[in-house]
Amino acid sequence: MLPVIDKPAIQYVIEEASSSGISDVLMITGRNKRPVEDHFDRAYELEDVLVEKGKLSALESVQASSRLADVHYVRQGQPLGLGHAVLCAKPHVGDQPFAVLLGDDLIDPRDRLLEVMMDVRQELGGSVLALMEVDPAQIHLYGCASVQRVPGSWAEDRDVLEILDLVEKPGIGAAPSNLAVIGRYVLDPEVFEVLQETKPGRNGEIQLTDALRVLAQRGSTVHGVVFSGRRYDTGNREDYLRSIVQLACERPDIGPGFCAWLKEYVENGLPG
């Protein structure tokens, strides 16, 4: 629920899913997450007040979040990791392919990453992960992929790689590449079977990376789409602030005035 300009980060994620054609959204929440549920619910009292005052633009903004998708909620009883959170979705998902979008990873809506991943799943089947090149000195902060090229111009045009192995937060010098797994997945439901058998790994958590590694190693279809677009990590304090500045500068309604102020501040107002 961290605000990014004038709406919470999670709304950007749901908007991304909705614009990619996903109409059914399940949120995995935990304790003290009730404000998330309230945000995507109708606020009838507030709407009535805005109607009475003729504030139709504000009314549209208030209603927008509740119109994005059919949103459902499941509470993760214990914080046992991303793999466990995904497993909590099994009764809702059933035997259908599904997307996983992490709430602190924002992908710029102009870059259409999720749509490309869904196309890859449609064309090649199996599971599809989003990969991003990072500084080798930072790869230990991520899940890391060992890959090989997929032949054919279709895959090359979309920068699609076959995933051979995955390592969760490899030690320095042990990473098979500088390709980090970022917070977008399109998964085949077979991952649930593996997650049910996956033992807790790093930090006592059930890692989604470990389950996907099992799928790749046993010959199931797992691909990665290399993303080189705009990504905003709201889980990191400095990146969170950069996200707000970048997105604000590019907003047509507030960008020109904000950029003018920012330029003046950088030139004249920075401390020191």
From TrEMBL:
This is UTP--glucose-1-phosphate uridylyltransferase. It comes from Streptomyces coacervatus. One of its GO terms (molecular function) is nucleotidyltransferase activity. Belongs to the UDPGP type 2 family. It catalyses: alpha-D-glucose 1-phosphate + UTP + H(+) = UDP-alpha-D-glucose + diphosphate. The gene is galU_2. Coiled coil: none annotated. InterPro entries: GalU_uridylyltTrfase_bac/arc, NTP_transferase_dom, Nucleotide-diphossugar_trans. It is an enzyme of class 2 (transferase). Gene3D superfamilies: Spore Coat Polysaccharide Biosynthesis Protein SpsA, Chain A.
